[in-house]
């Protein structure tokens, strides 16, 4: 987008001399800055998580998707889940109509959580693995739920999944990203303190290379499977040339990556994303760590989020 802006500015600008070159220079510096930000998410960046063979005993196959509440093409989601046959499914923007129209898959997923809402913040969770523990949290807003679930893998090992869908900044309603940033960081701190192998999943309403996401990686000490592999953009599904990675799965250091894929359209404005990961005793994952100033900044963002 910014490269297009650079071309348009060059063509239509009536200014000449130093003013025109200063404008072009500022746009060019923006291009360089953004290039540096997204570089780790290209195939030329360093991978945070190495690939390992998938294990049915110590691995999980997960689909995460924002279905778009007003999307009525329910059968597309049902067919996709049946075809891909994941172990775990986490969907957001699910109201009661969505819960009713997903009943067809329930027989394959004996463990579930239903939190239908009409405010675009409903959640549903399906698992083939037993739930050892589950928590439904409202971290900042009584109308925006998140989940925390311990699952028992076939090997008997326990992993923790955090499912979130924080509110985005919206002009005229929620001008700042304060609450979104705070919720992401709250979950990051919970994951970092959790002794179980953990993952954070959901529509974070934030791109992979944002400052907040990078701070989250440091606070949580988790890894982003996208780094070194590509953008794996999930939004906007209906705009082919302008897409961003808004739907995420972050993994703790205990996992190796066995597969990552953006799936076909389900009629939503988001594409679902699929991941396979496996517990491993080998060191397959690099993580960041927050320094003192970053921990203070994260704490301040969380406090500000509670004040909103």
UniProtKB/TrEMBL annotation:
MF terms (GO), sorted A to Z: endonuclease activity
Keywords: Endonuclease, Hydrolase, Membrane, Nuclease, Transmembrane, Transmembrane helix
InterPro entries, A to Z: Endo/exonu/phosph_ase_sf, Endo/exonuclease/phosphatase
Alphabetical list of Pfam families matching this protein: Exo_endo_phos (PF03372)
Residue ranges of every copy of the Endonuclease/exonuclease/phosphatase domain listed in the record: 68-270
Recorded superkingdom: Bacteria
Ranges that cross the membrane: 26-44
Protein name stated in the entry: Endonuclease/exonuclease/phosphatase family protein
Species name: Algoriphagus taiwanensis
């Amino acid at each position: 987008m910014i490269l297009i802006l650079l071309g348009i500015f060059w063509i239509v600008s009536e200014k000449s001399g130093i003013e025109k070159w200063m404008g072009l220079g500022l746009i060019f510096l923006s291009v360089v800055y953004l290039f540096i930000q997204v570089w780790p998410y290209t195939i030329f960046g360093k991978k945070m998580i190495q690939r390992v063979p998938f294990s049915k005993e110590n691995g999980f196959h997960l689909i995460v998707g924002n279905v778009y509440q007003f999307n009525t093409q329910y059968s597309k989601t049902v067919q996709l889940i049946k075809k891909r046959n994941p172990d775990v499914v986490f969907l957001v923007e699910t109201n009661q109509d969505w819960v009713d129209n997903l009943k067809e898959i329930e027989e394959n997923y004996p463990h579930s959580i239903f939190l239908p809402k009409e405010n675009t913040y409903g959640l549903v969770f399906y698992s083939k693995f037993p739930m050892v523990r589950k928590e439904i949290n409202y971290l900042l807003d009584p109308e925006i739920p998140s989940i925390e679930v311990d699952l028992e893998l076939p090997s008997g090992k326990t992993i923790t999944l955090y499912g979130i869908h924080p509110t985005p900044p919206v002009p005229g309603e929620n001008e700042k990203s304060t609450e979104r940033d705070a919720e992401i960081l709250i979950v990051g701190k919970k994951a970092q303190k959790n002794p179980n192998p953990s993952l954070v999943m959901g529509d974070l309403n934030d791109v992979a290379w944002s400052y907040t996401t990078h701070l989250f990686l440091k606070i949580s000490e988790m890894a982003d499977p996208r780094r070194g592999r590509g953008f794996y953009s999930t939004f906007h599904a209906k705009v082919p040339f302008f897409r961003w990675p808004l739907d995420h799965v972050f993994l703790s250091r205990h996992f190796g990556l066995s597969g990552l894929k953006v799936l076909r359209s389900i009629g939503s404005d988001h594409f679902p994303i699929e991941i396979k990961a496996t517990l491993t005793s080998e060191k397959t994952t690099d993580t960041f760590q927050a320094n003192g100033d970053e921990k203070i900044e994260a704490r301040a963002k969380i406090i500000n989020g509670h004040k909103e």
